[in-house]
Automatic annotation (TrEMBL), chain A:
This is Sulphate transport system permease protein 2:Sulfate ABC transporter, permease protein CysW. PROSITE patterns: ABC_TM1. Coiled coil: none annotated. The lineage of its organism: Bacteria, Pseudomonadati, Chlorobiota, Chlorobiia, Chlorobiales. It comes from Chlorobium ferrooxidans DSM 13031. It is a multi-pass membrane protein. It is found in: Cell membrane.
From TrEMBL, chain B:
This is Sulfate transport system permease protein CysT. Its main location: membrane. It comes from Chlorobium ferrooxidans DSM 13031. Keywords: Membrane, Sulfate transport, Transmembrane, Transmembrane helix, Transport. One of its GO terms (molecular function) is ABC-type sulfate transporter activity. The complex is composed of two ATP-binding proteins (CysA), two transmembrane proteins (CysT and CysW) and a solute-binding protein (CysP). Part of the ABC transporter complex CysAWTP (TC 3.A.1.6.1) involved in sulfate/thiosulfate import. Probably responsible for the translocation of the substrate across the membrane.
């Protein structure tokens, strides 16, 4: 913001910022680093140290093992179904909440965040109570030959619940800040509903939408508690990547467990870096206006 | 002008469609499944419900979950304030990278965090060797649970404090400085009260998350009955015994507490907004 001012020859405001003395700064940065070493660097470093303990060949073997590949496939299937459903819902809910005034809006927004306040184990429990073979609805489904709990659909539904708020949560503040002026202007110029959405709203929210979908995918890949309740832990059938990591670990097959976990760490690192880069981009965009 | 804006009409299309789908999807995915807890806990009747949630093992698990989540949230408040302060106020090499890494607990699957801390603090682990020398029990003890929950809750505090710290006007500190306050006085009397609502919000979020956390805890906790069994694990073991009503009763208590936290948070935020007016 200050660059155009400077180029016009306006003298910059010289202002001595009050800051902490150097020893205090060094001490506080040191303490922060110490915390990060204990809680971030050592745990993440440990994953790779353990994963490569028996060398590259063992690492590759652990990752190429058929059960691992089945787990990766199941996780990817879940993500491919859950993320589009929740993204579509997120856009719809954000449109309803930010483009219109209606009573009960605050309550609706609180309800959208509900899954964040629910323990993952409870998230799994509710679907066992609703669809498990010992419940009326579940046993009726069973008679029709449909099995949901302890099979893939159960995993998908539980993940749907856990990742429910992510996209809506990203889009609502963004679209609230953008207001409805542009859409209303388009309307007065004769644009139809889908035209307004496709040509005005969607381009405005595309980064927020993408970002929400990335967070949604990260959680869908990594969800453990909820999926653990509904999966039944059948190897090669209802094992997602985190569940596979758990099974290998509890069999004392640590090296293989950490090898598979290293895939998830790599994914988590990618997620946080993409997030940082995109936030940087957001800020640059908003300061241009 | 303000009068016109207040009664703004809804002229954009698609309200019925988007609102209808929102309510339908919300009900199908969240409301109806969650209500199953009530439908399974309420027919139990008051007496069996009470005896299910006050069984010694269940009570011990509640106590453990609340005390460890509270201690972790307290630690996170201090560590989070420190980190947010350093990231907003100072410039040093690697700062952007550190800032990005704050989100690792959000992005890392909880089971991976769990096996990391369990291995790190095992008797032959990198940190377990050190804690063993000092005679501190971490693995298979409540301390281990606190360690895992500190990791899980930490980003909530940093991410709620950062924007508030960034928006603090330098004039406030400058005038305190001109009036002769030392840096520590300025921090205690001016900055801390100003940051307090955000600090409270962040730590409450960390606390609420800690109560329900499962994946990162079970590996390091050892899950010894009456000693290191957390409340979500009690739900899990009741489910394994097909005790659906018992599991729902334990879950209902946790849910009611989590929802009261959300309401409390909304109240804090309203109070915060009033303060600024």
């Amino acid at each position: 913001m200050s660059t155009p001012l400077l180029s016009q020859g306006t003298p910059p405001v010289v202002r001595k910022k009050i800051s902490d003395p150097l020893p205090v700064r060094i001490l506080l940065i040191g303490l922060t680093l110490l915390f990060f070493i204990g809680f971030v660097f050592l745990p993440l470093g440990l994953v790779f140290a353990q994963a490569f303990q028996k060398g590259w060949d063992f690492y590759l073997e652990a990752i190429r093992e058929p059960y691992t590949i089945e787990a990766v496939k199941l996780t990817l299937t879940t993500v491919a179904i859950v993320v589009p459903l929740n993204a579509f819902f997120g856009v719809t809910a954000a449109w309803a909440i930010t483009k219109f005034s209606f009573p009960g809006k605050a309550a609706l927004k609180t309800l959208l965040d509900l899954p964040f306040a629910v323990s993952p184990v409870i998230a799994g429990l509710i679907f066992v109570l609703l669809l498990g073979s010992r419940t009326p609805f579940g046993s009726w489904l069973g008679e029709q030959g449909i099995k949901i709990i302890f099979s893939t659909p159960g995993i998908i539904i539980a993940t749907l619940f856990v990742t429910f708020p992510f996209v809506a949560r990203e889009l609502i503040p963004l679209m609230e800040a953008q207001g409805r002026d542009e859409e209303e202007a388009a309307l007065t110029l004769g644009a139809k509903g889908w035209q307004i959405f496709g040509k005005i709203t969607l381009p405005n929210i595309r980064w927020g939408l993408l970002y929400g979908m990335i967070l949604c995918s990260a959680r869908a890949i990594g969800e453990f508690g909820a999926v653990s309740v509904v999966s039944g832990h059948i190897r090669g059938q209802t094992n997602t990547i985190p569940l596979h990591v758990e099974i290998l670990y509890s069999e004392y097959n640590f090296t293989a467990s950490f090898a598979v976990a290293s895939l998830l760490v790599f994914l988590a690192l990618t997620t946080v870096i993409v997030k940082a880069v995109m936030e940087n981009r957001f800020q640059k965009n908003s300061s241009q206006h | 002008m303000a009068i016109f804006q207040k009664k703004r009409r809804n002229i954009l299309p698609g309200f019925g469609l988007s609102m209808g789908y929102t309510v339908f999807y919300l009900s199908a995915v969240v409301i109806v499944p969650l209500s199953m807890i009530f439908f399974n806990a309420i027919p139990m009747g008051w007496e069996p419900f009470l005896s299910a949630v006050t069984a010694p093992r269940v009570l011990a698990s509640y106590k453990l979950s609340f005390s460890t989540a509270f201690l972790a949230a307290l630690f996170d408040a201090v560590a989070g304030l420190l980190t947010a302060w350093v990231l907003v106020r100072y410039r040093f090499p690697g700062k952007a990278f550190l800032d990005a890494l704050v989100d690792i607990p959000f992005a890392l699957p909880t089971a991976v965090a769990g096996i990391c801390f369990a291995t790190l603090y095992s008797p032959v682990g990198w940190l377990g060797e050190i804690t063993a020398k000092w005679n501190i029990e971490v693995i298979n003890s409540p301390t281990g649970i606190v360690v895992a929950l500190i990791f899980i809750g930490f980003p909530f505090v940093v991410r709620t404090l950062q924007p508030v710290l960034e928006e603090l006007e330098p004039e406030i500190e400058e005038s305190a400085h001109c009036l002769g306050a030392t840096r520590l006085q300025t921090f205690r009397k001016i900055l801390l009260p100003h940051l307090f609502p955000a600090l409270l919000t962040g730590s409450t979020l960390a606390f609420a998350r800690g109560i329900g956390e499962y994946g990162s805890v079970i590996f390091i906790a050892g899950n010894l009955p009456m000693k290191t069994e957390i409340a979500p694990l009690m739900i899990m073991s009741k489910l394994d015994q097909y005790d659906y009503n018992g599991a729902s009763a334990v879950a209902l208590v946790l849910l009611v507490i989590s929802f009261s936290m959300i309401l409390l948070l909304n109240a804090i935020q309203e109070w915060q907004q009033k303060e600024y007016r």
